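Q: How would the C-alpha cells look for this protein?
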Amino acid sequence: MITSPFKTPHGHAVGLFLITTLLWSLSGILLKPVHWHPLAAASLRSGVAALSLLFWLKPSLPVFKELLGAFSYAGMVLFFVTATLQTNVATALFLQNTAPAYVLLLAPLLLKERSRLTDGLAILCAIAGVAMIFSAHLSLTALRGTLAGMLCGIFSALFVLSMRLRKNQNPLIIVFWGNLFAFLIGLPFLVRSPLAPLPWGLLSLAGLFQLAIPFVLYSRAIQNVTALEAILLSTLEVIMNPFWVWWIWKERLPSGTLAGGTLILSGLILRALLQRSPPSPPKGMV
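A: Here is the predicted structure in C-alpha cell form.
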C-alpha cells in the first residue's frame, strides 16, 4: 500500500507551506483594483487580519522584544501595500525578498551568528539586483513605490530577527499585534476613504485569506521544513503573484525588474544550496 507523502509530518508541513505561499500570492490581484491611499488600504487589510487571528489565539500584552517585532511587522505590511499600489507587484516582492541580505548583515551583530562566504554571495546579488530594479523605475511615482519596497525589505529583516530573538514564543502573538499597529497607523486615512463595496470587500478578503490564515498555516508548517525548502517554496509566491496580476489585470513587468529580481532570488537559492548545514528557518515570513 502506497502512503501519501503528505500524511507524514514533513510532507504535511510541506503541503501547508505550499498552501501558504499560494495564499500569499493573492496579494497583487486583491490590492491592485483598490485606488485608495496606501495606508488606508493597509489599515483595513491588517485590521481584518488582526480580528481574524482572535479565532486562533488569546493575545497577551506584548513584552519589549515582542513590541519590536510587532512594529517591524507593521512597517513591513504598510510599506508592502505602498510599494504594490505605487509600482508593480513584482518590484514590491523582489525588494521584499532582499530581507535575507539584511538579516545576514545584522545577524552577527544582534544574534552573534557567524557569517559565511556564501552569505557574502547572497548580499552581493541583492545589492546588484536592487540597483537593476531602481534603474527600471525612474518616474517619481514608481520611485516612491520602489523606495517603499526597499523599506519593506528592511522591516521584513527586522521582523525575522525579532522572531529569532523570541524563537520559543508563539509567532502569531507578534503577528496579531503587528497587524493591530498597522491598522491604527493607517486608521486616519481609512476613515476618510469612501464606503465603496469593491475595495472594502477585496481588502477584507486580503486580510483573512492573504494575511491571517497563511500566517496560521505558516506557524504550523515552519517547524518541519528545512531552510532550503522554505526558500524554494517561498519563491513560488514571487513567481505566481506577478503572474496572477499579469493574467487578470494585465500589469506588465519591466525587463530591469525581471533581471534584478532574478539576481536577488538566485543569490538566495545558491546560498541555500551551498550551505552544508543550513540553519533552521526563522519563525516568520522573509
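The two ends are 38 Å apart (CA to CA).

Residues 140-165 form the longest helix (26 residues).

Upvote if useful.
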